[in-house]
Design a protein that fits this description.
The complex is a heterotrimer of chains A (365), B (330) and C (510). By secondary structure, chain B is an all-alpha fold. Chain B has 14 helices and 2 strands, in the order H-H-H-H-E-H-H-H-H-H-H-E-H-H-H-H. Classes of the chains: A mainly alpha (365), B mainly alpha (330), C alpha/beta (510). Chains in contact: A-B, A-C, B-C.
């Protein structure tokens, strides 16, 4: 018999060591990514990393864009986190953000010349919160009542949102026949979120920074946060403790959806000033990974979202410098994710090598 | 007038990639693995075939291709590509017991990126004006229809006019259905998805079954990507053209309540719904067409809700779907 | 020497993390005998047997089957060696039929023929008089039918060594007798059997020889004919125990909780409680006795507002205001808001009573998280309470934030009971409060319950050990098949009489 691996669950591992393992996995993944890039581009590995860094933080403007992208990804990740902490597998953030985009775009287009700007922005805020909340409420309602599979439900809701947006883009297209909305209220700038200190990137960063703190406090210290944690651990324990499980599921998912809706508002009226069906760009799915990688800790999510955005921007730089395809970033992101996902195993389990020679000896005496 | 004779074949051709994807995903889910990486795997299956075909066409350098390698090379490449993806998924979720949802999503990111990256690179290599690679020579082999397709009138057009991969998809679905319901292997596989602890105690190698079902499922799904490029798209690869068909295939799994044989008709139905907007007289209102595209998803949602309302035991998802199994759990 | 060994286990050691479940155990099973593996809950019986059935792999030691050294790394290896185990928790696929479950995992070649298999199953069933149909779905089966499927599964495979893990825990006495007859018949066929149990009368009834485990160690083996209840108890618990639980007389008992004509159905529409009526008084411990699965769990969960009630009343008499309140239709939160002080130590400690991933403080909050105005939870008081419980009940844990899942069973139970008592309830319900606990912790729990009783609290104690029920409780409600078969004085009734009530349906007198 060959030597055999024996795997058992770790009784405990200090958080420091756990982060050490994750950090190691990321480093290893970066090395692999470097090697792959070197093979594809013929660049020496150090230059690869330098280029990646250049892409993310090379100029002040690039840094701002990087942080803005972080803020969007982080915001969506924060939105999905309460649901995941409740072990509610919501992979519908994409649709929830998108429907928030649609709601705020609709307000901008329909009321742009009818309401004063302040009131318009308020209406937009309410509309996007409501739309996202509705997209979160529906799967939660059916899951709480009839245990309908939430993963599949939320997945379908994404495409319903996409088609709705596609529909309205054609309804509102400017100019007719272009299949695009173009910049909304370009001249009047009605419904555009204000720029802070003349800095076009600052507002979204600030909003998400506040959101991060708020979400951390909400999950860590509020009664709702406690309920979410208990429901996530065991729905039976929750009922035993007098927690209305159905209500918590519905409330938490509605909140998740509403925050996604808010991010939709930020995307449309704070950042892009237009709407496309791909405006969320898969960040609803990436957010799932950001949140999971950070073990649902809002503070740790700053780093995980930064890591993914950094990589994305860096790989983007490499592809433009070497006129490679933009999708190169997705490949690198994928590799990093695989390594981190794989590393969780070594955090949760330990491997013993049983010395088979010894036991073999015993057996045949 | 609604022209069923021209509508039906198009619905079928839309449906075949979905049928491959859903058959593959059903096998995978029956082993308890919820593989959300299927969309990525279908991209990888497609691009791998494209790369194989591209290299073969290049090596032929303009001489006419012979039929066998022109079909075998892309198919083998496609199968290999999606097999590797399946192996990766299994290694992470079965061997390393990682979270299936997260792994699946990461694989979709990776797979779509992989497809578009190499697709883009090939486009650059050919230096073509349009952003696509055309492999029409290879495609013609894949698109060869059955004899009498031309001469058998409407019957020929509706049932004989497809490339061999379309018929293969139906055969695979029927065969999968047979294996799942009528064979020992199928019974064992279902037990792994329902209750791995039970299967394990009965001496069934849970890990082996999960690996095999998931890898075979991935390879079948990958063929869906290959069919799309080589047959449906006439050998033209353009980035992102495959779209979200992979997710639609996952929807189809729920819609058919985990039955590959039902999936044959259901995929054609979905294919039909997907292109229905082309056949509905909406006049100049392009917008409404977008709403029609929503139909497959809405219908799937309704099925999902009805199934959960009815609570029939046989219609529920495999009981351990999405959970990883560790024998010495304590 | 006697007959040769069907199984010989030599120096078997198995550790889980820092816990040694089996410590250098030597065990022999002779051919054609029934061996009882006796031990308290948590003594390592099941772990040891799981290494024979291939579920676990020993860290150290060697197993011999019929004299040959073997490696059992998987259940398949176990089957190949003719070993079949009937697990306590059935390993069946619910959506499969009996026949599908039985052929599961068989390494037969050739055509897959479920019909032929069904015929053979019917044959086996007729031989032993089992009442299952091959094409019956498992989810439609009763517990004893499921167990039958498990046994047929093993017989179908032609196993000559059978291991039964606490097979009687879920059976009625009649079913138990029938099972024992079957076991004797199998022995006559030349099969060797191991029965895991902690019920002494069963050991004496069915087995030829007894092997005793205690805290993961092998204590010794005796021939059943040379053993009696006392000697076995001594081996099992390590010293001679008369329970000697301190039982003061109730002081001024007043009705506190009256259950009237309570009837409930489970999700599948099976009647679980049938017209149950009794009254629990303040200042006394009311024991609830019965074979496992007689409706104990449903009864407590109904009172706690966790089970849907079809008919009947649950009246609570408020000690302060003297008001009556009907608890039917309330959920746990409503009950709390109605000012009813109800504490409940459920059977499933980590699945219902506690949150495994949280520490003591987080778990104390399960009862108090709603307190205080505003959005935020109060951590200070639960932290204080956690520290008190930690000290007073001598919970072994590194800190109040150490996840309770990683604590030992006894400490987990101390956390749970400590929290429930700290609520200062009017009614305290406990389900299998000492299951899996060592003797010392069990006594800690008994004393805590008695102290609560003397404070004037109505205590409901669901137990499985009749000796404890008879020495701890003041009165007993005996459940049988969801009905109350008797409400008796625990001080005067004998164990035999209770045993009789547990197995007798009394339909005529109300």
């Amino acid at each position: 018999m060959l030597s055999r691996f024996h795997i058992s669950k770790r009784s405990s591992l200090s958080p420091q060591k756990a982060w050490l393992i994750r950090g190691g996995a990321i480093l290893l993944a970066l090395v692999i990514c470097g090697i792959i890039t070197t093979i594809t581009t013929g660049l020496n590995p150090l230059d690869v990393y330098a280029t990646i860094f250049q892409g993310a933080f090379g100029t002040a403007r690039k840094s701002w864009v990087t942080w803005q992208n972080v803020s969007v990804l982080l915001g969506i990740s924060l939105a999905v986190t309460p649901a995941f902490k409740m072990r509610f597998w919501n992979i519908g953030a994409e649709g929830q953000v998108l429907i928030g985009c649609l709601a705020s775009a609709a307000c901008m287009i329909l009321f742009g010349d009818k309401l004063p700007n302040g009131l318009l922005i308020l209406v937009m805020l309410l509309a996007s919160l409501f739309a996202g909340g509705l997209w979160g409420f529906l799967p939660a309602f059916f899951n709480a009542r009839w245990n309908t599979n939430e993963t599949l439900f939320t997945l379908m809701m994404n495409y319903i949102a996409t088609q709705l947006v596609a529909y309205y883009i054609i309804v509102w297209e400017v100019p007719k026949g272009s299949g695009k909305i173009g910049i909304i209220n370009q001249n009047s700038q009605m419904g555009w979120l204000p720029q802070l200190a003349g800095q076009q990137y600052l507002l979204s960063i600030l909003i998400v920074a506040i959101l991060t703190g708020a979400m951390y406090i909400y999950l860590q210290y509020s009664k709702h946060g406690y309920e979410i944690a208990v429901v996530g651990e065991s729905r039976r324990t929750a009922s035993y403790a007098g927690i209305k499980v159905d209500r918590v599921i519905i409330r938490t998912m509605t909140l998740s959806g509403a925050v996604c809706g808010l991010m939709g508002l930020l995307l449309v009226s704070g950042i892009n000033h237009t709407m496309t069906t791909t405006i969320v760009g898969g960040r609803g799915f990436t957010a799932v990974m950001v949140s999971w990688l950070a073990k649902f800790n809002p503070i740790a999510m700053i780093f995980t979202s930064l890591l993914l955005v950094f990589l994305d921007r860096g790989a983007g730089e490499i592809s433009s410098v070497f006129s490679l395809n933009r999708s190169f970033a997705d490949i690198l992101t994928g590799i990093i994710l695989f390594f981190i996902i794989g590393s969780e195993f070594f955090i949760n389990y330990e491997i013993h090598l049983t010395n088979s020679a010894e036991t073999e000896g015993e057996r045949h005496v | 007038m609604f022209d069923i004779v021209s509508f039906f074949p198009r619905a079928v051709m839309q449906g075949i990639p979905l049928l491959y994807g859903s058959t593959g995903e059903i096998l995978t889910e029956k082993s308890g693995n919820l593989n959300l990486g299927i969309p990525g795997i279908m991209y990888v299956g497609a691009i791998s075939g494209v790369i194989g075909a591209f290299l073969y066409e290049q090596s032929a350098a303009g001489r006419p291709l012979s039929a066998f390698p022109a079909i075998a090379i892309p198919m083998l490449c496609s199968l290999l590509g999606s097999l590797l993806m399946g192996l990766l998924y299994c290694f992470l979720t079965v061997t390393l017991r990682a979270n299936q949802n997260v792994t699946g999503l990461a694989m979709t990111t990776f797979g779509v990126g992989f497809g578009n990256f190499f697709g883009g690179s090939l486009i650059k290599l050919t230096g073509s004006e349009v952003p696509s690679v055309a492999l029409s020579a290879t495609s013609s082999f894949f698109r060869t229809s059955l004899p009498f397709a031309e001469s058998a009138g409407w019957f020929g057009q509706m049932f004989l006019s497809y490339g061999f991969l379309a018929y293969l998809a139906i055969l695979i679905a029927l065969f999968s259905s047979h294996v799942l319901n009528r064979t020992r292997i199928g019974l064992y596989l279902r037990s792994v998805g329902e209750s791995p602890a039970t299967a394990d105690a009965a001496g069934i190698n849970v890990v082996k079954y999960k690996y095999f079902a998931t890898c075979i499922g991935s390879m079948i799904a990958g063929l869906g990507g290959l069919y799309y490029v080589m047959d449906y798209a006439c050998g033209v690869w353009s980035n992102d053209a495959f779209g979200d068909r992979g997710w639609l295939a996952i929807a189809l799994v729920i819609f058919t309540i985990w039955r590959p044989s039902v999936s044959i008709l259901a995929s054609i139905l979905f294919g039909g719904l997907y292109i229905l907007y082309l056949y509905i007289p909406t006049g100049m209102d392009l917008a409404v067409k977008e709403l029609y595209k929503m139909l497959p998803y809405v219908i799937t949602l309704i099925v999902l809700i009805i199934v959960s309302l009815r609570k029939k035991r046989e219609n529920q998802p495999p009981a351990s779907l999405g959970l990883s199994y560790f024998r010495e759990e304590r | 020497m006697g007959s040769p060994c069907a199984i010989k286990m030599e120096n078997i050691t198995k550790r889980f993390g820092t816990v040694t479940a089996n410590d250098h155990i030597n065990l022999e099973l002779h051919e054609g005998e029934i061996l009882s593996l006796l031990g308290e809950n948590g003594s390592g019986k099941t772990t040891l047997m799981n290494m024979l059935s291939g579920i676990y792999f020993p860290d150290e030691g060697q197993i011999y089957v019929h004299g040959k050294p073997v490696t059992i790394a998987s259940p398949k290896d176990a089957f190949d060696n003719g070993i079949g185990m009937i697990h306590q928790h059935f390993k069946l696929v619910d959506v499969f039929t009996a026949a599908q479950n039985i052929v599961l995992g068989l390494e037969e070649q050739g055509k897959f023929d479920l019909k032929a298999a069904s015929a053979r199953i019917t044959e086996i069933c007729q031989k032993y008089g089992f009442d299952i149909k091959p094409d019956q779905k498992v989810y439609d089966m009763s517990v004893s039918q499921k167990q039958t499927v498990e046994i047929v599964k093993v017989l179908y495979r032609g196993a000559d060594i059978l291991i039964l893990d606490e097979p009687t825990a879920v059976l009625t006495p009649q079913e138990t007798d029938k099972l024992f007859d079957i076991m004797r018949a199998m022995k006559k066929d030349g099969k060797s059997l191991i029965i895991i149990t902690h019920k002494l009368h069963e050991v004496l009834d069915v087995s030829d020889r007894v092997a005793v485990l205690r805290k993961g160690e092998y204590i010794g083996g005796v021939l059943t004919k040379d053993a009696n209840q006392q000697s076995l108890t001594d081996m099992m618990v390590g010293r001679s125990v008369t329970l000697n639980i301190d039982r003061p007389m109730p002081v001024d008992p007043q009705p506190r909780l009256a259950v009237k004509n309570l009837t409930v159905y489970d999700q599948l529409g099976v009647k679980r409680l049938d017209n149950v009526s009794f009254t629990a008084n303040s200042g006394e411990i009311l024991g609830i006795a019965g074979v496992a699965g007689s409706g104990q769990k449903e009864l407590l969960e109904s009172i706690a507002g966790l089970y849907p009630i079809a008919r009947g009343e649950i009246m609570f008499y408020d000690p302060e205001s003297g008001q009556e309140k009907n608890l039917v239709g309330m959920d746990p939160l409503d009950i709390k808001r109605a000012g009813v002080g109800m504490a409940f130590v459920p059977e499933d400690r980590l699945g219902m009573g506690l949150v495994g991933s949280m520490g003591m403080t987080g778990n104390m909050m399960l009862r108090s998280w709603r307190n205080g105005k505003g959005l935020f939870v109060d951590r200070k008081h639960p932290e204080q309470l956690a520290n008190d419980v930690w000290k007073e009940l001598e919970v072994v844990t590194p800190s109040t934030s150490f996840p309770v899942r990683r604590m030992s069973g006894g400490n987990v139970q101390k956390v749970l009971v400590g929290r429930e008592i700290a609520q200062d309830p009017a009614v305290l319900m406990t389900a299998y409060a000492v299951r899996g606990l060592d003797i010392n912790t069990s006594y800690t729990i008994y004393n805590l319950l008695t102290a609560e009783k003397m404070k004037g609290i109505a205590v409901l104690y669901v137990g499985e050990d009749l000796d404890v029920l008879l020495e701890l409780c003041d009165r007993l409600v005996v459940l049988c098949g969801g009905q109350v078969s008797g409400v008796v004085d625990a001080r005067t009734i004998t164990k035999e009489e209770v045993g009789l009530l547990m197995t007798q349906h009394r339909k005529e007198d109300a």
